[in-house]
């Protein structure tokens, strides 16, 4: 029998991209066959031990080159940026499994499914990029997303608030307009790809909402107030700016009160 946390350690502490993708899919396949154990005797290394490939070169968001999405170079840069988000999302899903022990089996099953879907997204985007003559790592990317993992390595509630319920939820807000932009220029391949990703991401944010509320209930804290407190604590600037996709966020487990708070100017 194979162990989930051994898979997690291998995916987080080795840099080989193709091996990471294969291990992620193998772990999900092993789980669905009922052959995966959840023995917690695998030690937890510090988050500073997590290893990423040497490429892409990581820049601060302000230092990223500005390109128009209507040009071939701009389109390639856009999908390279999405590929990087999805690649880091594989790490984020594995890290929440690896770092936070003692949760119910369903928690680990949910985030392993997320890891597998993020790996599928990355592979689809990488193939799409290659049709444009670009591979993942050829262009720079920004490293901000993983900073949220490092900031919340000690606190599962904070991780759930900041990653699925903040950063990933931004995709629900911005992706529909991007899909419409590609639709308007007749780029059916990009539309299909982004629509597939958006559909899955709603489910990922919903799992974040579900486990956030479950943990709050267990700890005897009010979930909406805790969410506000954690966003104010960890989000630079106090909270994200809108507009927010209320319809999709409600499906993904946000309450109207949470959305009213997000939409209220600071």
Q: What does the model show?
A:
The chain has 266 residues and is mostly helical. It contains 10 helices and 4 strands; from the N terminus they run βααββααβαααααα. It has a two-stranded parallel ribbon with strand order 1-2.
Q: Which characteristics define this entry?
A:
single chain, mainly alpha, 66% helix, Ferritin, two-stranded parallel ribbon, 266 residues, globular, 10 helices
Distance linking N and C termini? 52 Å
Q: Helical stretch count?
A: 10
Number of strands: 4
Q: Per CATH, what is the topology? A: Ferritin
Q: Walk across the major sheet and give the strand order.
A: 1-2
Instruction: Calculate Rg over CA atoms.
Output: 18 Å
Instruction: Summarize the amount of helix as a percent range.
Output: 55-70%
CATH class, named Mainly Alpha
Main sheet makeup: 2 strands, parallel
**What is the name of the CATH architecture?**
Up-down Bundle
- Give the percentage of residues in beta strands: under 5%
Q: Name the CATH superfamily classification.
A: Ferritin, core subunit, four-helix bundle
How much is the average pLDDT? 96
Q: Helices and strands: which structural class?
A: mainly alpha
Order of helices and strands: EHHEEHHEHHHHHH
Low-confidence stretches: none
How many domains? The number is 1
Shape: globular
């Amino acid at each position: 029998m194979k162990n989930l946390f051994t898979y997690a350690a291998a995916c987080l502490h080795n840099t080989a991209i193709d091996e990471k993708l294969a291990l992620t899919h193998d772990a999900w396949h092993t789980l669905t066959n009922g052959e995966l154990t959840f023995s917690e005797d695998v030690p937890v290394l510090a988050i500073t031990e997590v290893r990423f490939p040497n490429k892409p070169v990581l820049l601060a968001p302000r230092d990223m080159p500005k390109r128009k999405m209507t040009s071939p170079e701009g389109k390639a840069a856009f999908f390279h940026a999405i590929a990087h988000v999805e690649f880091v999302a594989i790490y984020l899903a594995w890290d929440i499994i690896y770092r936070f022990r003692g949760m119910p089996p369903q928690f680990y099953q949910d985030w392993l499914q997320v890891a597998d879907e993020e790996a599928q997204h990355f592979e689809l985007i990488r193939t799409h990029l290659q049709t444009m003559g670009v591979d993942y790592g050829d262009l720079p990317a920004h490293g901000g997303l993983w900073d949220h993992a490092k900031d919340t390595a000690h606190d599962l509630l904070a991780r759930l608030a900041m990653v699925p319920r903040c950063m990933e939820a931004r995709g629900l807000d911005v992706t529909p307009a991007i899909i419409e932009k590609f639709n308007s220029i007749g780029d059916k391949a990009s539309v299909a790809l982004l629509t597939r990703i958006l559909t899955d991401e709603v489910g990922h944010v919903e799992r974040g909402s579900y486990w956030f509320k479950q943990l709050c209930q267990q700890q005897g804290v009010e979930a909406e107030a805790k969410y506000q407190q954690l966003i104010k604590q960890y989000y630079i600037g106090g909270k994200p700016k809108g507009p927010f996709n209320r319809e999709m966020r409600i499906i993904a487990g946000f309450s109207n009160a949470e959305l009213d708070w997000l939409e209220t100017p600071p």
